[in-house]
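WARN no homologs supplied; continuing
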Amino acid sequence: MQYARCLGIMGMVVLSAGIACGQDRAEVFGGYSFARHEGANMGKGFDASGTGYVNKWFGIEGDFSGHYWGQSVLVTNGFVVIPVQANVRLLSFQGGPKFAFRAERVTPYVHALFGLAQTMVSGSVGALSLSTSTTGFSAAIGGGLDIPVGQHLAIRAAQVDYSYVQARDFDIHSNGVRIVSGLVVRF
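OK structure emitted
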């Protein structure tokens, strides 16, 4: 899977940058992510990122996220009931600059991430199943707030991003929002 390879490379680059620059110069994050795109609430999601800092306030971030949406309905036509299922899976791999404003009790930050998103759509109507996917440009621009809870651990209280996804083969340009929360480990 190409996303697994990209995530592994991103992790090695971030950790290498952190080791080369010294202590507390890299961080990894993992947590829950909620996204809303074009009226669809994608409440099932994850986000993982890594940042290698060049100095105390500027770093390069790599981000991998996944969001899932599904809906089942029963369509009736007279006495006939037909089950209809629709599923969307959105995976994105992005990277870009991150600016952190470190303070003793909190670390607010902003970032601008750009990359690729793979959109997969599947569905079934009765016994007929369909599935297709496409890859296109994606972006996430926003920021968040980390709260340190130890020397090398922080809670990402909230991260809110404007999210853009292009699904070329579907001719879709989707604007949305992504909200993330989880744990940060600093090296």
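The first strand starts at residue 26 and ends at 37.
OK
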